[in-house]
## 1
Amino acid sequence: MRIIWYEIRKLLDWKIISLVLLISVLFFELFLSFDFDHFPNGRPKGDTFKVTKQMIDQYGTEMNEKEFQDFKETYQKEVDKAGDYLQSRDDFVEAGVTTYEQFKSMADGKEKLNELHNDIMFDKGIDVFWELQSRESIMESYERKKEDFFKDTAHIHNSAWKQDIVKGSSLNAILPHFVYENYNNLITMFAILIILTVMIVVGRVFITDQQNYALHLQYTTHIGRKLFKKKVIASMLTAFVITSVYIGVFLLLYAGNDPQAFLQSSLRSFDAHTIHWLDMSFLQYIYLTIMAVYLLAFVAAAIAMFLSRAVNQYISLIGAQVPIAVVLILLISEYLVSNLFGIAYPMYMTIGTYAGLLVLGVAILITRWRKERKMDIK
Amino acid sequence: MIRKQELLKLTKTPTIPLLIIFFAALNVVIVMSNTHLKKDLSVLTNLVETYGYEINEDMMKQFGNDYQEKVKWVNKIAPGDDKTYKHPSELLSDDTVRRENTLSDSEKQKLLKYGVIEQYHRTAQNIDDFYKNIDLDSSAESIIKMHGFTGSAADEVRDQYQTLDGRLDELIDNGEHKNLFFKGSLYEMHSFLFRYIGMALIFELMILVVLITAAVTNYEFEHRTALVTYTARRGRKLIIDKLIAATIANGVVMFALIGVTLSAFFLTYDYSGLWNVPISSYFNAEMPLPYISWWNLSFIEYVAIFVLLMMVSQLLFMGISFMLSVFLKNTYLVFFAFVILLGLGILLPSFAPMSSQLVFWLYYNPFAFILNPHLWLMGNGPFTIYANYEIVTISVWVFLLGLGVSYSIYRFHRQQLQ
């Protein structure tokens, strides 16, 4: 145990930790801060966010046909409110615009009216008008949910699967597509950051000792070559700690995006742009992706460890890690984390890739251990 | 002799050659990702073969006559007699024809081809009107609004667009815009080559250059031979040999990777007959504002200067990693220290307030320099709009890094070897 603890301390050397932290901060600023700072991004997304949260309060995670009628009625009431507002403004009454219908069609071409229109939408930014826009697009996508679903799944020839989904109620789920996409972007970029960090930190596990000729000493002691196994455990624990810390930070920051209301909604909402093979709630999807990130971190650690032992120069270590990192990043942003189990890729491909990566990770460590047991120490 | 030995040290591990092969393969994959455009692109190559690339009255007359022939053919194959089609696209977008499916496959192919020719013909006709209506003042205003410039920064943008306006007049006088080229708004070949492939090349070369420079410079420390080599007669002067060896190795790597990538590109996409087309041709335009280069450059000249700038910026990165190596003495650390510098350089301009001209000054750094390679020498980027942006960035940093490298050599001669 004590040796494992020493090895972990060696891996988490303060110089490397500060290096990794600096890289993480820069990475955060370049690729992550936007999705935290600007969510929901602009109007009417912010208004849709507000309206859908109200809907969940009222209707629960799904909106059935009856509740949809109620939603329409609320829409009419809002339209009346907008009309009241228009009538309360002299400039609009003068221009002959007193109802929401007239307001919507007023801005075509006429400059004077255009200015009035912009006054409400942009200069003053009156909430009710933006919310009406959101409600309209919600109604539209709710009414088109089945068509949209068939359009999105046009390339899949499994009508039984499609019929099951259409008959079920998950298409009624309330989850704006940009909430899902925001999470998807963030977890993808975090996964990449975690993989890179693990590779940087764990990549040093053998090569530093080798560079110091410490391995010669270590392998002739009582514990001897079993140290390899201890180092494997230490590396895996380090990978686990790094991943947990980053995921923890991520979840804390992500809570600031206020997704709590949507956690129980199914991903197959009427507003979904990405369809998934599995019927998951948003929360289940979050669990699933986090598990995927842990898995990838362990695989990355295994590969980094193997390389760290197999090469004997820093240049070779980085040189070997670069292509692996490039491939992993491409896979992560294609289907290993981004849109995990989405229908853009067949399900067996995702499972197959994960299984393959796991087998690869385990296999290289086992073969290396076998070799380690009887190899010459130069 | 010593330099040769220094170079040989690089070949002790297969890392660098393997990385080059990996990157070359990656680039070939990127190059191939647009092969579905080849058929459409060949339509333009054929047009240029027939009419030449210059658009003038004679050419347009001939082009127009031939085009009318094509429209006649379109009407001939059109199923209904009651309707005349003025353009191939009208038949292509006619839903009843598509539904009845009366055209044979070869006719459909030909029709699609004529649809592409129509695009070129139409665009060629509209060029003069379009350039008459370009209003750079309003472009400046919309850019100011988009990026949120205020105060003197906003004035600077306006000033620069005034200068660009002068160049635009000159460009129109030269007739640089009136030349046939692959239609940028459809195929985005300029972005494809100079942005995506260019960026891939720049970052791949950056990785290679940093690794090679650091590995050559740190070799003695990483192999515990420093105490022997640096105390010999030649001693610490070796650092200069190492610098030269690194330059040679980097040069070879650059030629290899750029050579393979560009060969793959030009063997895949046929640019014959287009080498001398000005880069500011209207057909090259991808955004509402067409590309306006600060100088009258042909496509091949632009490629040459692009490669040159790419290589010089890599030399800057070599200088930076050499300095880092002298002080850190560890390839692993140098690599990631460089990554941190890269991130800082990219982020640096965003720390400046949008109201001061500082925001433009901060773009004069080698890391911001490589972010928009497709806009090099162009007046299109709001932050790098200056005509001399490239030359100033390069000269200032060659000078600064020259000083830095000399200082690190001076330091190296005196520093502790432990």
## 2
Amino acid sequence: MATTLTSPTPARGAAGNAPTAGRQRRRSGGSASGSLLTILTWLLALVFFAPVLWMVSTSFKQENAAASTPPTFFFEPTFEQYAAVLAQNAGPYFANSLIATGVSTLLVIVLAVPASYALSIRPVKKTSDVLFFFISTKMLPVVAVIMPIYVISGRLHVLDNVWTLVILYTSMNLPIAVWMMRSFFQEVPGEVLEAAQMDGAGLMKTLRSVLIPMVTPGIAATALICVIFSWNEFFFALNLTAAKAATVPVFLMGTMTSEGLFLAKLSAASVLASLPVVLAGWAAQKQLVRGLSMGAVK
Amino acid sequence: MSTDLTTGSGADRAATGAPGRDPEGPDARRAARREGWSRRLPLLPALIFTILVTQIPFAMTIWYSLRSWNLLRPDGETFVWFRNFVDIFMDSTFRGAALNSIIITLGCVFAALILGTLFAILLDREFLGRGVVRTLLITPFLIMPAATSMLWSVSLLNPSFGLLNWVIGLFGAGPIDFTSQMPLFSVIMALVWQWTPFMMLLILAGLQAQPKDVLEAAALDGAGWGKTFLFVTLPQLRRYIELSVLLGAIYVVNTFDQIYLMTAGGPGTASANLPFYIYQRAFLGFDVGQAAAMGVVTVIATIIIATFALRLIFRSFDTKD
């Protein structure tokens, strides 16, 4: 905090003409400790990020260099491991993950947009009860419902079916999405909507031309969170899918159990499995900040 | 403030929207009812979907929990009232798993919150490469937990070639077989690594929402950094901290991937948490009744704890207005 405050001052201090020596000392002290803080921040960030770097670098190694004592830091990078992973017929797994993630996220948005509208802009009477209900379903541990879901899916003959995952991932993300989206809707100033209605725009037109553009960043943020959680989901996928509908985390687990000793190949598979979500998250990190702070940010 | 605003304007809109001025008239009542339904309608698909997909299986879990039903035993199902519950409370593995769940959740949420707050404070200032540092710091949250488990259990913690063991070797410490000697600690480490960015992002949002004039006033009053943080920033962060603890706990209680892939609950059942143990009872032991009873107990415990947390949050929502 103090640094944010003092950071504008060193620039002015550099121009000289500081009234008192005391203040000058504080300024130069501020800038010195500022750069020290910057170095510390970078160091901590690099240490924290090191496991990722290690995983990526391992994925470019030969197997004997990947599991060496002491660890190998310098090596000639090879794409061999990636080629090996891709040759393993990973395509169907990625296709299943893409369907489960994409369709469930779409479904969440389609359900959550009207719901959050009814909880913020044109609120129903028991708004906070409804919100409480939504979030309380997240407290239901998935393990507590896995048996009935397994039994129901078996009776309906939808075990090992990617659409079962679509439904489950939708219900898994919907409560959080409603909460997040509601916080974005609440930021739409009431006057804007009233003005639109004054202009004689119908409800649908108001929604389409005024509301949706204003909350699009919020929808994007919500979608990103849904994508992260459903792409990475493991428990349902492990228990409800087999050969046909298995997703990327299951593929990764398969690689782990069958070729756990092939560390470089395993790392390459991990990198490939994580890449889509990591790239999406990097690209939309501003939305991530906004999205995660649902309701709390005002 | 926001809730106040919307409910206020909602009421206004409701008032102007109702055609009949006379609240007693049947027309007005019908209009009010229609108005109520037109408000409820957009909510219904999401609400009905959520009730169907989450509450029906849970009701079935309660039903199963009262029955003796083991897929391996041929004698079929019988209604046994609360025997499953008595059995699981006699089961020391269940009690151990419950304790592990608590340790993992508390340990992970607490450590991730502290670390996340530290990172958030460091990020809440202008400096060279701030965007890059933020990108580096959020990455563990984006990486697939299955990949994280592999990365930690094999690449970092392996006793012979793990990177972390090499690092502690530099300081003269012998290699440690982390996942078998301290399985809970290993799992918590991986979890903290994954959840710290989540906490960091939430706290960062809180820091950036602080009114700058308050901070300036504090500085003018001669408050040092420590005092400003303790008496100005921390109270304002309260809501964000509560929210991150609640959300973090909700997700961490359900941890399964790391346990399954890093330690498989072992050695023995030393690192099994409730989700993992229930999974074992259900899918490896085929004891549907007991697994269901454990699920019910987990839900009750979670709801009791979380209700307290939620009440706190809702209260702070209210007092904010």
